[in-house]
Amino acid sequence: MNLQSEQADTKDSILNAAECLFAEKGYSGTSLRVLTGKAKVNLAAVNYHFGSKQALLEAVIKRKITPLNQIRRKRVEEVRRQARKEGRRPDANDILYAFIEPTLRFRENERGAKDFVTFIGRSFADPDDTVRKIFFRFIQPMFQLLLEAMREALPHLSENIIFWRLQLSMGALFHTLHICEDIDMDHLNIKDLDADSMVNLILPYLSAGMKS
Amino acid sequence: MNLQSEQADTKDSILNAAECLFAEKGYSGTSLRVLTGKAKVNLAAVNYHFGSKQALLEAVIKRKITPLNQIRRKRVEEVRRQARKEGRRPDANDILYAFIEPTLRFRENERGAKDFVTFIGRSFADPDDTVRKIFFRFIQPMFQLLLEAMREALPHLSENIIFWRLQLSMGALFHTLHICEDIDMDHLNIKDLDADSMVNLILPYLSAGMKS
DNA sequence: GTCTATAGATTGATAGAC
DNA sequence: GTCTATCAATCTATAGAC
C-alpha cells in the first residue's frame, strides 16, 4: 500500500514535471536532469519507471489526450445525432463548438492542462519526427471524425477543401493558444481570459473560415 | 578577387545549408557538425565567418526576410494608398492578398525559399526563446503594419479583436505551409500546388475569418 | 525503489599549425 | 582562410551498492 502510493507519487511527479517542461522548453529541449530535478526525484527514476525518455513522452501525451478526446468525440457525435434526428445536416459552427469548447474548458479546469494544450500546439511544428509521429498517432482518429462530420455539414465542398480548411483551423487555434502564453502586452493580454471568452474570440473566426 | 569570391562561396554554402537544415530539423536540432558537413566546409568555418551559431541564425533570417518584407510592405501600402485615393476604406481581403501572395510567390520562385518559409512556421512555435525573439524582432514591424491597415479596413472591430484575428491568420497560414511539406496522402496532396492555387485555397478562409 | 557513479556519445567553441 | 585536434560541458542510459 505504502509502496504503491509512493510509486504513484513518483510517477505522477515525473509526469507533471514533464508536462510542464515539454510545454515550455520542448521535448528535445528538456533534459532528464532538469526534469528529475523539478520533479524532485532521482535522475535514474525516469528510466526505471518509464523505460526511456521517449516512453515518458508517450505517457505524458496519453494521460491527458485520452480523456480529452473521449469528451470531444462524444460532443461531436451528439451534434451529428441531433441533426440526423431532426432530418437536417449538422452545422459547421456546432461541430467546431463541440470540439473547441471542451478543449478550452479542459485547458481552464484541469491541473496542468494549460501546459498540455501549449505542448500540443508546439508539437505540431516540432522538428523532431518522433514527437510529431507520436502526437499524430493520438490525434489522427479525432481529426478523422471532424473530417467526416464536416463533410456532412458542408456537402458542397470537396473533401480536399474541407481537409485543408480543417488544417487551417487547427493551425489558427493552437498557434493562438500558445502565443497567448508567450505574449505580454498589457492592453492586448488574453492570458487570463476564461474559456467562454476565448471560445467567443476564436469560434466565429474558424466558423466563418470553414464556411467561406 | 579570388579570395573574396571563395569567401562568399563559403559563407553562402553555410547559409544555404543552415536554411535547409533549420527548416527540417530546427535550430537546436541542427549541430554544427552536420551543418558544415552538408555545406562541405570545415567545422570551424561557422565560428570563423559568423562568430557563433546564434549569429548564423540571425544571418539566415535576415538574408531572406529583408527583401521579402520590402515587397510585402510595398504591396500593403499600395492597397492603402489606392483606397485613400478613391476615398474609401481598404478592403481586408486586399490587404491579406497583398501579404500572402508575395509570400507564396517568393516561396515558389526563390532558391531555398520553401525551406525558409517552413522555418518561419516552425519558429513561431520554437521552444527556444532565442529563436522566437530573433524572429519576433524581424517580423514585428511587418505585423504592426498589417495591424494598422486592418484597423483602417475594419473600423467597427476593436484593436483587440483585430490583433487576435491576425494571430489566428498567421497561425493558420504558417501551420498549413509547413504541414503541407510533411504530409503525404495521395489524394490530399498539395505539396506541388503552385502559388496561385495555394492563395485560392488559403485566402478565402483567412478573409472570411477576419471579417466574421 | 532509490541512490551514486559513470559509461559513451555528442555538443559549441577555440587554439594553433599551415 | 582552412585545417586538425581538443577542451569543457552536456546529454541519455545503465550498472551496481544499499
Which shape of chain A, going by the Cα principal axes? elongated
- The total count of helices of chain A amounts to 9
Beta percentage of chain A is under 5%
Largest sheet of chain A: none
Which spans of chain A of ≥5 residues are poorly predicted at pLDDT below 50?
Answer: 1-5
CATH topology (level 3) name of chain A: Tetracycline Repressor, domain 2
Radius of gyration of chain A in whole Å, from Cα? 19 Å
Q: Judging by the overall fold, what is the CATH architecture of chain A?
A: Orthogonal Bundle
- Greatest interface and its residue counts? A-B, 46 and 46 residues
Assembly state here? Answer: homodimer
Question: Would you count the extended β strands of chain A for me?
Answer: 0
CATH class of chain A: Mainly Alpha
How many domains of chain A? The number is 1
Mean pLDDT of chain A comes to: 93
Helix content of chain A: over 70%
N to C succession of SSEs of chain A: HHHHHHHHH
Output the CATH homologous superfamily of chain A.
Tetracycline Repressor, domain 2
> Which structural category fits the helices and strands of chain A?
mainly alpha
- End-to-end Cα distance of chain A: 58 Å
